[in-house]
What we know:
By secondary structure, this protein is an alpha/beta fold. 43% of the residues lie in helices and 19% in strands. The protein has helices at 17-39, 58-67, 72-82, 100-108, 133-144, 169-186, 201-208; strands at residues 2-9, 46-53, 86-94, 97-98, 118-125, 148-149, 154-157. Strands 1, 2, 3, 4, 5, 6 and 7 form a seven-stranded mixed sheet that branches. The mean pLDDT is 87.
Amino acid sequence: MTKRLVVITAGLGRPSSTRLLADRLAAATRRQVTDSNVDNPGAFDDVEVRVIELRDLANDIAQNMVTGFPGPQLRDAVDATTSADGLIAVTPVFTGSYSGLFKSFFDIVDKGALAGTPVLIAATGGTARHSLVLEHAMRPLFSYLRAVVMPTAVYAATEDWGAAGDDTLATRIERAAAELAAQIADRPVSRPEPEETFIPFDRQLAALTPKG
């Protein structure tokens, strides 16, 4: 069986520093989960990484907000998110908080659908002054969704990308990835839910009709 790691990135530009941070977190997590499998052979076969760029779903998300019904692409993205063995969620900081697109996507996810799912939260911004967005906005959001949020959250300001020192961006990425990898490796392998049997309403009604 394969472990499934889903990466949600709300970056709007191309290239995007948010996508870049998401890719580095995903690569570090996948490597560490794979390394843990070497020590525990047979636990699972591989780690499948799927990246979901919310900018590609912006119209579908807006349509869902006003109609209450997701299109096929959005439904597929939500299903992948809620069935993941681990989740990495990365947003740019706008006006001191996560982006509206990021929040709108997780507003679509059912409240209990992420219960127990390990989540690594991360954000990007122009200045380190916004780093508390991880603690005052993102962590409460995923706690509300009953996810298991990793202790280390990663914030990348512009100056972090080329910085050196003891607590560099690379160090924080590795530490956060190790925490998420441990959770994924210990998590039971996801198995597909059996398909619900659909019984037409006329047959249900007929079953309630008294005999004779």
